[in-house]
């Protein structure tokens, strides 16, 4: 992680601009911000809608995040860092997957931002993931995030 990101993580605020091609997905969820927050951060709930992924973190700025699971029949362990928390409205993380085949260097990490906006009838949940290799990779990531948000919308109302 760069010195800038490390300092920002400890302060709990970030000022980074998205890099490269950005994947975006959005879903209106019939739940309040606290329910959505629980669904984003509780490992038991995450596993129900995030392709069976088991996530571990204490969700404090600067803390590590580990994602474990199986994708296309192959086990994986991805990692990241909590960059920003504004519970229950915003979560920003750094993300790296060794399955990318790229070296684990800051330039190859992605930033994933979750924004929860209360609206009439629930909340608008938006996810952005930067630093995708190209437009095709961003489109695939957007599709995966949409699937995840569709699942989140079924879990969050009971969280």
From TrEMBL:
SUPFAM superfamilies: Bet v1-like (SSF55961). Transmembrane segments: none annotated. It holds the Pfam family AHSA1. Residues 30-155 form the Activator of Hsp90 ATPase homologue 1/2-like C-terminal domain. InterPro entries: ASHA1/2-like_C, START-like_dom_sf. It comes from the Bacteria. Belongs to the AHA1 family. This is Activator of Hsp90 ATPase homologue 1/2-like C-terminal domain-containing protein.
């Amino acid at each position: 992680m760069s010195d800038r990101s490390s300092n920002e993580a400890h302060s709990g605020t970030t000022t980074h601009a998205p890099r490269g091609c950005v994947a975006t997905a959005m879903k209106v969820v019939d739940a309040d911000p606290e329910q959505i927050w629980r669904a984003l951060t509780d490992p038991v709930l995450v596993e129900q809608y995030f392709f069976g992924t088991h996530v571990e973190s204490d969700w404090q700025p600067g803390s590590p995040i580990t994602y474990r699971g199986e994708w296309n029949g192959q086990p994986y362990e991805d990692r990241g860092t909590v960059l920003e928390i504004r519970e229950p409205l915003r979560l920003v993380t750094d993300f790296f997957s060794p399955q990318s085949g790229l070296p684990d260097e800051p330039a190859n990490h992605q930033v994933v931002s979750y924004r929860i906006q209360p609206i009439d009838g629930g909340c608008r949940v938006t996810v952005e993931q930067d630093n995708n290799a190209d437009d095709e990779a961003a489109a695939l990531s957007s599709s995966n995030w949409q699937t995840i948000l569709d699942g989140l919308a079924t879990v969050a109302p009971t969280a």
